[in-house]
Amino acid sequence: MRVDGKRAIGIGVATGAKDDVVAVGDAVAEHLKEMEQLFPIGMELKTIYPENQIANEANNGFILNLIESLLIVIVIIFLVMGSRAGMLVGSSLLFSVGGTLLIMLIWGVGLNRTSLAAFIIAMGMLVDNAIVVTDNAQVGIKRGLSRYQALVDGATKPQWALLGATFIAVCSFLPMYLAPASVAEIVKPLFIVLGVSLGLSWILALTQTTTFGNFILKEAKPGESKDPYDTKLYHKFENVLGRLIKRRYLTLTSVVATLFLSLFIMSIMPQSFFPIMNKPYFRADLIFPEGYGIDDVERNVIKIEEYLKNNDKIKSYSFTLGGSPVRYYLASSSIGPKPNFANVLIETKDAKDAQSEENKFYEYMVANYPDILTRSALFALSPVPDAAIEIGFVGDNIDTLVALTQRAQEIARKNDMVMEVRNSWGNKVPVWKPLYSQEKGLRLGITRQQMAYSLRSATNGVPLGEYREGDVFMPILLKDADRDSMNLNDIKTLPVYSAKGRSVKVEQVIDDFSLDYEYSVVKRYNRQRYMMMQCEPKRGANTMAAFSQLWQDIQQEVQVPEGYKLQYFGEQSEQDKGNKAIAANIPLTGFSFSFLMMACSRPPPPMTMSFMEKFLLA
Questions:
Q1: pLDDT at 487 exceeding the cut of 80
Q2: How many CB atoms sit inside 10 A of residue 11's CB?
Q3: Model's pTM, two decimal places?
Q4: Mean pLDDT, range 457-464, rounded to an integer
Q5: Residue 608 reports pLDDT greater than 60
């Protein structure tokens, strides 16, 4: 690992499942500050990714948006319904939000992006019940009813219809909660917060709104009774509504046509379930050709550091070689150990510069290091796949898989919406295959295992044991001191020791030295080999549109032999899994809607004194 041009050791601290990341991060920072005084001269501690500060800033921003939405809703109600009604409905909104936060605390549902976003989504629905009760009470008062009776009638008459509407709104998000896919883990708080807040809004509309209304709303003047809907505006609206009902077939056709038009427009719009996050960071995966060692990667990384060092808008940068860095972010990728891989995390001085600097870094890498596959991106809430578009073939024979994948790559290179076309196995690497001779080996007293032992000591090393530190195991390897300077001719002259201590050269027990090229990575899917054509959409291109066009072209132009299967993977496959998981529970939601509408269509039998009357009397 390298940080700001110097070698470093990375330390990651993870919070518990139910711990507050902000509190844990502050405690860790305070403890490290005390330890820093004990560090030897020349060693410094640098925080690369302070999740506690980032989470705190993000939550504060969402809370500010929540407060703004609260104020906007209350101000609009004040302007439309008047000060007294606005005060009544606004108080119900505040009680709904406050009560939901209290229940979240009891249930252990924390404040995060999803739960705070649920409040903002529900903001317009939280006031519906209170508005209906308040408006019905105001209409009753204008028609000559007493304030008490108007509030009772305004709450009891629509109470079951309001409950049905509230339940339907909650059930709309039920498939996301019940979905067994990974998307449910992200959006589960959405359903919980919406269910609790909307349920509270119905209860408070029947209790708190009527109680407060008995003190806030004005009593009707004696002898004053008029129809509040006897105005020019309502008469014009009645006329328009009557015409639409008379032409009901035209009205229904227009509504259905508008629905399908909306669905069509939604299908061609850029789709991104997980948005880009506003952070002063961007990251990049640097994938070198197969066969590169970690020393080769480090030499190139040092050159790249010179470019970053001279950029005034970059605050800090860190490289992790041979694998993914310590898991500093939930949606970060996990790769390695892989000697031809490096990851870079770059922090800009201003979050506004992250996008432009990410583009500049990508252009610099493409122009100066064309043999390195650079996958740079801003931070998003979605996991980072190996490629945005992955279309592969599943089968047994490697040559057939290679031929099919190369044909798919040719089709992708002709498409002007994608770039960085490659396969998922990488390039072939040179392989030296010494053929052991049993006849020579037996005559010289050298076995196949003894020859392999000698070759391993000159290449990857012979494992002698394991070093354990905590829960981490590291192999103890025996390696030849001159292994880095060896060539193929030197390997031929390696000594091989027999059980009696006699040594001979490797070439004395080998019949043939064949040099070939093979794939160092062979991937399997459901116990079968599979190779994918991978590519990225060009910057500014729609990923879904590019995938759809490629998938259609490959299906039409590639003849898949019997016993082989064409399949897409990556983001599209995960999206299908999420959609199927959500769609599986949609019938349950539809059944709940139908059952509730039938149950609410028949009003309950009249009672001598309603619950609301008893509540207000109490």
A1: no
A2: 10
A3: 0.69
A4: 84
A5: no
User: What pLDDT, on a 0 to 100 scale, did the predictor assign at position 165?
Assistant: 85
**Alpha carbon separation from 345 to 15, 379, 497, 530 (Å, rounded):** 21, 10, 48, 31
**In the 8-state DSSP scheme, what is residue 484?**
G
Phi, psi of 499 (to 5 degrees): -65, -25
Spatial CA neighbour of 409 closest among 393, 396, 397: 393
Residues recorded for the chain: 618
- Helix, strand, coil shares of the chain, percent, nearest 5, are 55, 15, 30
Cis before 337? omega within 30? yes
Q: How confident is the model at residue 565 (pLDDT cuts 50, 70, 90)?
A: very high
Q: Which two tokens stand for residue 383?
A: 């996991």
Any residues with CB less than 8 A from the CB of 357 and at least 6 apart, and which?
282, 311, 313, 314, 346, 348
Asked whether the predicted pLDDT for residue 406 surpasses 90, the reply is yes
266 backbone dihedrals φ, ψ, rounded to 5°: -65, -35
Report pLDDT digits (tens) over 298-341.
999 999 999 999 899 999 999 999 888 876 666 666 777 888 89
CA dist 550 to 387, 409, 537, Å?
14, 10, 11
CA angle 129, 134, 139 (to 5 degrees): 130
DSSP 174-195: HHHHH--SHHHHHHHHHHHHHH
CA pair distance 470, 460, nearest whole angstrom: 25
Coil, helix or strand at residue 8 = coil
* Single-letter residue type at 204: L
Side chain identity at residue 131, one-letter code = I
- Dihedral, CA of residue 434, residue 435, residue 439 and residue 442, to nearest 10: 50
Q: For 247-293, where are the alpha helices, taking DSSP H only?
A: 248-268
Does residue 177 register a pLDDT over 90?
Answer: no
Rounded to whole angstroms, the Cα distance separating 33 from 489 reads: 55
CA-CA distance, 249 to 239, in Å (whole number)? Answer: 18
Tally: H helices and E strands in the chain: 22, 17
Give the span between the Cα atoms of 15 and 52, in whole angstroms: 10
Q: Which run of H or E residues covers position 499?
A: none
pLDDT recorded at residue 183: 60
Identity of the highest mean pLDDT range in 190-199, 463-472, 478-487 = 190-199
**Alpha helix stretches (DSSP H) within 269-370:** 294-309, 354-368
In the prediction, which pLDDT does 393 show? 95
CA distance 229 to 140: 12
Report the pLDDT value the prediction gives residue 611, as an integer from 0 to 100: 46
Give the whole-angstrom CA distance, residue 589 versus residue 610: 31
The secondary structure of residue 72, as a DSSP letter, is H
pLDDT in tens, 49-61: 888 888 788 778 7
User: What Å distances lie between residue 549 and 196, 246, 421, CA to CA?
Assistant: 43, 46, 15
Q: Which residue has the higher pLDDT, 127 or 404?
A: 404
Tokens of 384: 């980072």
Q: Contact 175/577 with Cβ under 8 angstroms?
A: no
Task: Check whether 169 has a pLDDT greater than 60.
Answer: yes
Name the one residue in this structure whose structure tokens are 């998003």. Answer: 380
Copy the structure tokens of residue 450: 């003894």
